[in-house]
Amino acid sequence: MNSVNLQALFSILSSLAFIYLSYQALSVVRFDIFLHDHQEAKARILKLLLAICIGYTVSSFLISIIMNIQNVIFGY
To answer: 11 near 63, Cβ under 8 Å?
Structure first.
């Protein structure tokens, strides 16, 4: 495997891991009280979309930091 494949694999796994962690962290927040008539299904969708946004952002930040450290160390 070359480095491009490993980087893509790391990016996918990192995104999925942080999306999962965000979803677990958001599970303690009751979103149904912010919606009218306590709509449970819409609260779950909102929680999932927020978890995707937060997880992807954290993953992108982590990958960016790692790439910047590699550039500093190896001088690319």
So the answer is: yes
Does residue 60 register a pLDDT over 90?
A: yes
Q: Which residue has the tokens 């946004």?
A: 53
Q: Is the pLDDT of residue 49 over 90?
A: yes
For residues 22-37, give the mean pLDDT. Answer: 86
Which helix (DSSP H) or strand (DSSP E) does residue 15 occupy? helix 3-26
- Nearest alpha carbon to residue 21 among 41, 45, 50: 50
Distances (CA, A) of 53 to 18, 50, 59: 10, 5, 10
Query: What is the rounded CA–CA span in Å between residue 7 and residue 15?
Result: 12
Place of tokens 């009218």: 36
Tell me the angle at which helices 3-26 and 40-74 cross, rounded to the nearest 10 degrees. 140
CB atoms within 10 A of CB 42: 15
